[in-house]
């Protein structure tokens, strides 16, 4: 690495900020990540890390400026002013978090590895809580409302739902966090120089898969399988380079298959029980409700003349319309209905900008992380609701931007680790 220094204070700062995602919703509005956001940004200013940048940064700046401008402008037609002011404050803090991670990456020794390690730390810190929930059925106070959920399995069989929500309050929010982390966890596997760390990273990924499946999230399961299969084939494509790598890629693939088959074989009855529950029980947002939500969302967008219902007005607008569910449960629809077509197009443009930026990199692993993160977003984006009010989506976007932008200067450094 540069000057033979593996990490500096900016690398550690990135890892710290992302690892704070492990606190989930503990603290309510004053979650640790929001509390530390302003001091973190002041640290960057004092360290001369905050500088005006051009190129791809212009697209990021424009998205944030457009977001803030439209939020303030929409106050003129917003319905719930109390909620609106809260969301404006949240946006400012979340934008500071996003820019802080991006600016810190510019001064870090290895920003890509720091981002991946930060997500790994966040996941690892929540796993003991999740295992306790699954094994002992004991939950944190933030999840006690969900703990009483009963599931109708059919034929007169009713039982309490087995789930893990860790610090996030409900299992769907935890599933979103785990799915968002997965591309970066696979990145840790590629970057691990020592076999023990590579194996440990794979164990964490396997544990994430188990938690998602037990939580019986269809969107989460599809996203996990999509990213994992993509990662396996990417590993096979890259693993064949160099002496002995041809055998290694097949050993890795066969090992993954055997582990997966063994797990499902010994837990067949329990996993079938969970899957049956998901397929036969009524969920908060069923397929019929999602179809109705989509129609209601289009009606609200049309009624707003495609400028959006305004900041903080989603719940009130759906309630006025008589909708059964008061949030779109779709990350793209939340943005579109609340802020209109223009901001939606700007956001989609930013996603494409990050994708094409990563294609210029000579690092195939960075390309994989960015592509898998982007293609899984539409799937993960329908698992939960309230995406834009959580720092999770902003950290996710910051991480994708860092890898897509700074991978160009790495010149394939991660690939050399694999070799």
List the topology elements.
Elements: H1 9-19, H2 32-46, H3 56-73, H4 81-107, H5 111-136, H6 144-147, E1 150-154, E2 157-160, H7 171-191, H8 195-214, H9 218-239, H10 245-266, H11 268-280, H12 287-303, H13 314-321, H14 331-359, H15 364-380, H16 391-410, H17 413-418
Helix pairs in contact: 1-4, 1-5, 2-4, 3-4, 3-14, 4-16, 5-7, 5-8, 5-16, 7-8, 7-9, 7-15, 9-10, 9-15, 12-14, 14-15, 14-16, 15-16
Please state the average pLDDT score: 82
Query: What are the low-pLDDT stretches, counting only 5+ consecutive residues below 50?
Result: 240-248, 410-419
Q: How many whole angstroms does the radius of gyration measure?
A: 22 Å
Could you say which structural class the secondary elements and strand pairing correspond to? mainly alpha
Gap between N and C termini, in Å?
Answer: 16 Å
Summarize the structure.
With 419 residues, this protein is mainly α. The protein has helices at 9-19, 32-46, 56-73, 81-107, 111-136, 144-147, 171-191, 195-214, 218-239, 245-266, 268-280, 287-303, 314-321, 331-359, 364-380, 391-410, 413-418, and strands at residues 150-154, 157-160. The protein has one domain.
General description of the model:
It is a single chain. The protein is mostly helical. The chain has one domain (2-418). It is 71% helix and 2% strand. It has a two-stranded antiparallel ribbon. The protein starts with 8 loop residues before the first helix and ends with a helix. Mean pLDDT is 82; it is low at 240-248 and 410-419.
């Amino acid at each position: 690495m540069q000057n033979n220094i593996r990490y500096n204070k900016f690398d550690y700062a990135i890892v710290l900020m992302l690892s704070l995602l492990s606190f989930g919703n503990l603290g309510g509005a004053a979650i640790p990540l929001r509390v530390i956001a302003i001091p973190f940004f002041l640290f960057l200013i004092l360290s001369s890390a905050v500088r005006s940048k051009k190129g791809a940064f212009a697209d990021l700046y424009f998205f944030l400026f457009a977001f803030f401008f439209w939020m303030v402008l929409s106050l003129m037609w917003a319905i719930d002013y109390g909620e609106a002011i809260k969301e404006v404050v949240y946006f400012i803090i979340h934008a500071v978090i996003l820019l802080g991670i991006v600016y810190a990456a510019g001064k870090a020794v290895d920003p890509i590895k720091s981002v991946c390690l930060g997500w790994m730390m966040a996941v690892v810190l929540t796993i003991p809580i999740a295992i306790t929930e699954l094994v002992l059925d004991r939950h944190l106070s933030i999840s006690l409302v969900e703990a009483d959920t009963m599931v109708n399995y059919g034929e007169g069989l009713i039982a309490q739902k087995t789930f893990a929500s860790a610090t996030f309050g409900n299992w769907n929010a935890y599933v979103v966090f785990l799915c968002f982390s997965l591309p970066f966890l696979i990145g840790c596997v590629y970057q691990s120089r020592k076999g023990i760390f590579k194996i440990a990273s794979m164990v964490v990924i396997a544990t994430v898969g188990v938690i998602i499946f037990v939580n019986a999230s269809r969107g989460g399961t599809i996203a996990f399988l999509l990213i994992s299969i993509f990662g396996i084939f990417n590993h096979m494509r890259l693993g064949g380079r160099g002496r002995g790598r041809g055998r290694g890629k097949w050993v890795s693939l066969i090992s993954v298959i055997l582990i997966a088959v063994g797990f499902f074989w010994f837990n067949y009855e329990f996993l079938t029980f969970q899957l049956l529950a998901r397929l036969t029980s009524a969920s908060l947002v069923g397929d019929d409700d999602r179809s109705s939500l989509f129609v209601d969302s289009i009606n609200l967008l049309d009624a707003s003349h495609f400028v959006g219902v305004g900041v903080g007005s989603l719940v009130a607008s759906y309630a006025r319309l008589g909708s059964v569910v008061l949030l779109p449960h779709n990350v793209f629809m939340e943005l579109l209905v609340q802020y209109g077509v223009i901001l939606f197009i700007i956001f989609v443009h930013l996603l494409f900008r990050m994708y094409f930026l990563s294609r210029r990199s000579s690092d195939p692993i960075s390309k994989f992380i960015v592509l898998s993160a982007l293609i899984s977003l539409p799937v993960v984006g329908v698992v939960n609701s309230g995406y834009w009010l959580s720092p999770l989506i902003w950290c996710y976007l910051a991480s994708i931007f860092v890898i897509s932008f700074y991978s160009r200067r790495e010149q394939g450094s991660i690939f050399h680790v694999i070799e």
